[in-house]
């Protein structure tokens, strides 16, 4: 499924964030996007009328606290999936054997002793990480791109700009396009069905008009 991006920074940013935070819940994505749209209209002093579809969303939408709780758990899943994708991408760039199993091994060594923002220890069992990867699969290329940007030695400038400025967001989309190319074309070693890391039809695809940016040139 290709994401519909309009070329407007705030709208497109929210579309991408909805996919990242609620990859498997269309109802939550719709509620998130409509809330963001209403907030922009309110800030601009624009009075809104609602389509029947929007009225249905409003009547049925989850509370703000529910969305925030779902988004927090989804972000944990996404960060884990993004780390695994970034590890596979980096291994491939270095000419090393690439597989989810190898990425899990590297991740577990890195994660020992580290915590989430709330102080809870990072999950690093194979079973839990695979569940996280599967849950975030549709948006894993976005999370992988974010993780690669975080690894750049620029004091966090590009990471902070990714969702704060139009230029930073364009860079983020370019890196996402590169990660998307990798996960949809690279077949890990010893894969019995010869399938790529993630099938293209599973992903929220960025449009072909987005030029891939190879992070290897920036590391």
Helix content: 55-70%
Low-confidence stretches: none
Q: How many β-strand stretches?
A: 0
Rg is: 18 Å
Which descriptor suits the 3D outline? Answer: globular
Structural class: mainly alpha
> In oligomeric terms, what are we looking at?
single chain
What is the overall pLDDT average?
87
Number of helices: 9
Estimate the strand proportion.
Answer: under 5%
> Ends: how far apart?
30 Å
- The ordered H/E elements are HHHHHHHHH
Main β-sheet description = none
Count of individual domains? 1
Describe the structure.
The protein has one domain (9-218). It is globular and about 55 Å long. The protein is an all-alpha fold. It has helices at residues 9-21, 26-43, 52-60, 64-93, 100-111, 126-136, 140-150, 157-161, 166-185.
Summarize the structure.
By secondary structure, the chain is an all-alpha fold.
Comma- or semicolon-separated keywords:
9 helices; about 220 residues; mainly alpha
What's the arrangement of secondary structure elements?
Blueprint: H1 9-21, H2 26-43, H3 52-60, H4 64-93, H5 100-111, H6 126-136, H7 140-150, H8 157-161, H9 166-185
